[in-house]
Each structure stands twice: as structure tokens, then as C-alpha cells.
Amino acid sequence: MSVRQDKTPWIIIAVLVGVIFCMVVGILGALASWWWNQNQTKARVTATSANDTNLILPTPMPTLLPIPSIAQEFDRWQMWLQPGSRVAGNNLVQVIGDTRYKQVVQFTRTNGQGDGGAAGLILPVDLNVASYPHVHVQLIGKIEKEMGGNIANTKLNMYPEGAAQVRIKYQTANAQAREWFHGFYTGAIIGVDESHFTQVLEKQWFTFVSFDLKALPEPPQKIQEIRVYGFGWEFQSAVAQFSLLGSTELLPSTDPTPSSARRPKVTNQDLPKDKAICEAQGGKWGKIGLSPTEQCNLPTPDAGKVCSDSSDCAGMCIANLSQTDYDRVWKDKTVIQTNGKCTPWRITVGCVPQVTNGKVQGILCID
Question: Average pLDDT, whole number, for the chain?
């Protein structure tokens, strides 16, 4: 009598062994491919042939300049709480929790009642950046809300307002004191100072990398103070990270205006501060608009010149609209494509149809 053996278990074992063998071979093959690609990449990066047009260069690794973290080392920064000139308001700077960045610094001003004030942080430093060919500012921030009379610096004779701004005070190679600043705004604003303000989305985190500060006409040699702040009637913003980056190569910038294309904006900073000097240059000295202080206003050398943008003028570019077109722009928000003429004075007050990029997109009221 013969015994018949069941071969099923052996078949299952053989199949399992085959599957395991294939998996091992696949893993070894993947590791070998990874090792080959890594060595090929290294070979291309270290290649020195001038004829190698496919040369892969390593990404420049910037140096994080030694400043304390704005959120994690909050206590090493100095508080800046500036009340309004007429209404003090409630200014607050504090560290709060955040689901994305764990800890961030929040800047808040409430109850401003139409009067501007500041809530920010100041960091005195002594950073020599002469050895860095390129210096950039990096900031991660968010704007919750903002309200003011000069958001995005539309009125160049007033202090710039915005819920999130950074200001760098530095010395040049000739030991001259200079400042650089940049701010952010949300929504549609006419007459934005595009050299100093970048539009961002409301209530969303953004990352900003400045253009190369060494490309400024008078670049920094020694950085002496950093301010991160909000300024305006009322606002709320947050900053998760702030860094100064020194690099041997240019870093990709999120600043929409490259330094090579920047045209200087006319401000009242270069107007004479002395009455006698002002009048000697043909200027008028006194209060302008609602400004409580007396200042100088100079005639422009290009008054009446045809222009398509205020950056073409020493003053502003204003369109000569009929009353009908003025009302269409003012009441109906109509956009009119036209040129304008340069104003006869550096500072202009009143409600005027400013021309921006060949268009009148609204009526700008300057007090």
C-alpha cells in the first residue's frame, strides 16, 4: 500500500523564497543605482573643464549672520511701543503660539482713532558686513489687518505706514549713517511706493528675500540697528522668522523690483531743513496741508513735462481730466489710460488724478 504525500506546503515555501529573493535583488539594485547617481553628480559638480556646458554648480550656502531669533530669543530684543501724537492707542508686542511655526511674534495696535503709532522690536547690533559681497534680508510674516493714512507710503511726505515692516540702520564705508526699509501691504492701493513695499495676501504667511543690499548706491559696511515693526492707525501682524544673510553669490530674491531697475523715489528727506536755505533755492517755507510742522517745498525743474508715471518727475505725474472723467474715476472707479504732466512743486496736496504706468486708476488725496 503506497502513501501519497501532500506537496502543497513545499510549493508555498518555494513561492515565498522566490518573492523574498526578488525583493532583495530589487533593493540591492536600487541602492546600486542611488550610489551610481550620487557619484555621477559629484563628478559633475567637481568638474573643472571650461568646455563643460552641463556643469552643475552647488547652490550657494549663505551665512546666517549672528542675531538672536526674533521669537525664540524674544527677550534679547528691545520693545518699541510708540503712542500716537494725539491718541495714544493700545500697542502690544507679544510671543504667541502658531500651528505652523510653533512660536511667532505678534504686533498689534488698536483704538488708534485715526492717529498713527508703532508696535515693534529693536535690536542694536554691531555687524561688520564688509567681507560679504552680498547681503540679504529674509523675513517670514503675515498681515491680519491694517488701517492707516499712508499705507504702502502713497504719500511720500509722510512717515510710511504698514502692519509689517523692517528697517535697517547702517554705516557706509565712509562712516555715513544710512537707512534701508521695506514693508508689506494687502489689498488694492493706488500710488504704492513700489521701491519699498511689496503686496502680500491677507492672513497668509509669506516669505520675503530682499534684493542685494550691497547693490544700494551707498551699501552697508556696518549694520547698527534692526527694527521689525508695524506702524499705522490700527493693525495686527506676525513675524515668524527674521534673518540677515551674508553670501558670496547672489540669492534668489522675492523682491519684484531688481536693484538694477530701481529708480530713486522723490521724498522730502532731501528737501532743505533750513528756512533760509529753502528760500534761497526758490522754495516756500511753511505748513503744507495738514502737517503740523513747517517744512520746505521746492519748485520742480521739469514742471509741465509730459509723463506716464510719477517716477518720471521730480514731483508727481498728474492728469488733466475733465470734470466728467474726474467723476468717473472718483465715483465709478473707472480706469482711464492717459498721460499726465509733472507738477510744478515737489510736494502736492489735495485730491489729484495721479498717473501710474500710463493710467489713472483712482484719485489720490494728500493732506
Answer: 81
